[in-house]
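To: structure subgroup
Subject: Chain for Friday's discussion

All,

I'm putting the inputs and outputs inline so they're searchable in the archive.
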Amino acid sequence: MKTAGPLPQPASRIAPSPDHVMIQTVTGCNANCIFCPNRKTALHIRQGLRMSWDLYRSLVDQCLDLGVRRYTLYLMNEPMLDRELPQRVACISRRIRKPQSVKTNSHGGLLTMQMAQGLLDSGLGKL
């Protein structure tokens, strides 16, 4: 009779910290791009609902404590619908050091001079 060898060790019950987080601070999008699943979800969520600052700060604090490296302020939305996007970026960027970074993705349709300057001043690493 052949023996199977040693049993595999159980996996750690504590998950490793994430390297990257995506935070959606506002719901919806003002575009209807064919490749985006935004308007194709089973649950309809009204556009323009914004995350509270208390929840946002709590998420950021927890992620900083975990040593998250990359923060993306975007998930399945247009982040520039959040008129406080530059302040939200700054809330993270002023507390991190390279190689940590903050980025976002946008279709650019809502990029005004005021938003552009705010994002430049906020410490956004990549747009």
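Points worth raising on Friday:
The first strand starts at residue 20 and ends at 22.
The chain has one domain: 20-122.

D.
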